[in-house]
Amino acid sequence: MSLDTQANYIRTIFDRIAPVYDSLNDWLSLGQHRIWKHMAVKWSDAKPGDTCLDLCCGSGDLAQILARRVGLSGQVKGVDFSPAQLANASTRVASCYPPLPIDWVEADALNLPFPDNYFDAATMGYGLRNVTDIPRALQELHRVLKPNAKAAILDFHRPNNSTLRSFQQWYLDNLVVPAAQQFGLTEEYAYISPSLDKFPTGSEQLQLARLAGFAAATHYPIAGGMMGVLVITK
User: Fold this and answer.
1) Res 96: pLDDT
2) What is the pTM of this model?
3) Organism's domain of life (predicted)?
4) ∠ CA 38-230-2 to the nearest 5 degrees?
5) What whole-number distance in Å separates Cα of residue 29 and Cα of residue 226?
6) Distance CA 3, CA 208 (A)
7) Which long-range contacts link 83-86 to residues 24+ away (Cβ below 8 Å)?
8) pLDDT tens digits, the chain, 234 residues: what are they?
9) 21-26, Cβ contacts within 8 angstroms, sequence gap of 24 or more
10) In degrees, to the nearest 5, what angle opens at C-alpha 154 toward C-alphas 150 and 157?
């Protein structure tokens, strides 16, 4: 499968799962993803008045947390390549008062439509695992961040512990995929397991971040290594 074909396949998946994305994330994370997202925003060091990026924003959870952190004097760009996800994100914040300072942008993580050294902080939730070129995505993130700015990247991982790894696979096979099946989305969520198999480990992510030009990188395992946050500094 070519990279363009793979990208189109992933975009189609996320367009299809957009209406039930939040419900299925609750299943997938045992309801803990909201806590982990707050942790990621904290580790991004976003401050009031900052201009921030939420890359692969999905339904906009991290973008909303960032927006409340930067306040009305700040700005958040929520970026995703799935128009259905962006429509869902926009609908979710439409009734917020005061309005949240978020612009929703349809764009590719591998070719961001922003100038160099633009953002004060960035987050990325469950997106790095799904890009077709992880090194290039990290290079683009490095390019658009200001010097000394941080990014916090949250994603699912394969745990090193064999018992936890077996539990994770059992959970995916017996709870997550059947839950997705109720929405007619079995194929869309069945891709999670192979995507985890291919995703770089925490130590591999540190190496990729340094190769992308980041001056500092730390990886924090969460939930016994089934989840992790990569914190990188330009």
Assistant:
1) 85
2) 0.86
3) Bacteria
4) 115
5) 9
6) 19
7) 83/15, 84/14, 84/15, 84/16, 84/18, 84/19, 85/14, 85/15, 85/18, 85/21, 85/57, 85/58, 85/59, 86/57
8) 455 566 566 666 665 655 566 666 666 666 677 788 999 999 999 999 999 999 999 889 999 999 999 999 999 999 998 888 899 899 989 888 888 999 999 999 999 999 999 999 999 998 898 898 999 999 999 999 999 999 999 998 888 888 988 988 888 788 777 777 776 666 656 677 788 888 899 999 999 999 999 999 999 998 888 889 999 999
9) 21/58, 21/59, 21/85, 21/88, 22/59, 22/61, 24/176, 24/179, 24/180, 24/183, 24/185, 24/189, 25/126
10) 135
Token pair of 16 as six digits: 């299809």
CA dihedral (125, 144, 108, 35) in degrees, to 10, reads 10
The H-or-E segment that residue 206 falls in is: helix 202-211
The residues that bridge with 103 in the sheet, in sequence order, are 77
Give the residue from 50, 71, 15, 21 showing the smallest Cα distance to 122: 50
Q: Is 163 exposed, middle or buried (0-12, 13-18, 19+ CB in 10 A)?
A: exposed
Rounded to whole angstroms, the Cα distance separating 136 from 161 reads: 30
Q: What span, in angstroms and rounded, lies between the C-alpha atoms of 13 and 31?
A: 22
